[in-house]
Amino acid sequence: MTKHILTIDRTSPVPLYKQIKEILIAELRANMDGPLRPISTEEELVLRFHVSRAPVRQALKELADEGYVYREVSVK
C-alpha cells in the first residue's frame, strides 16, 4: 500500500492554518488503531510545511480546542 503524503496548497484560498489542521486530523485518524504518540513539535511542523510559526500555532490551538490533541510544554 502506498502512503499518500498530504501537503499544503499555496494557491488555495483556504488559509494555511486550516490546511495544516486538516492534514493533521487526517493523519491522526489514519493512526487511530496504533499506539498513542506525540505529534510533531511546532518547530518540526514549521520545517515540514515551510511556513511561519503563526499558522502552525493556530492549527494546533484549534486542534486542542476541539479535543483532537492536548498540548504539553517540553522542558529542555
Description:
This protein is mainly alpha-helical and 76 residues long. It has a domain at 16-65. The chain is built from three helices and no strands. It has helices at 16-30, 42-49, 53-65. Helix 2 (42-49) crosses helix 3. The mean pLDDT is 87.
Concise summary:
The protein is 47% helix and 0% strand.
Number of helices: 3
- Note the main sheet: none
Overall residue-averaged pLDDT value = 87
Q: Please trace the helix and strand order, writing H or E for each element.
A: HHH
Separation of the first and last Cα atoms: 38 Å
Tally of DSSP β-strands: 0
The radius of gyration is 13 Å
Overall geometry comes to globular
Q: How does the helix and strand content classify structurally?
A: mainly alpha
Beta-strand content estimate: under 5%
Estimate the helix proportion, in percent: 40-55%
Ranges where pLDDT stays below 50 over 5 or more residues in a row are none
Topology:
Layout: H1 16-30, H2 42-49, H3 53-65
Helix pairs in contact: 1-3, 2-3
Give a quick set of tags describing it.
47% helix, 76 residues, 3 helices, mainly alpha
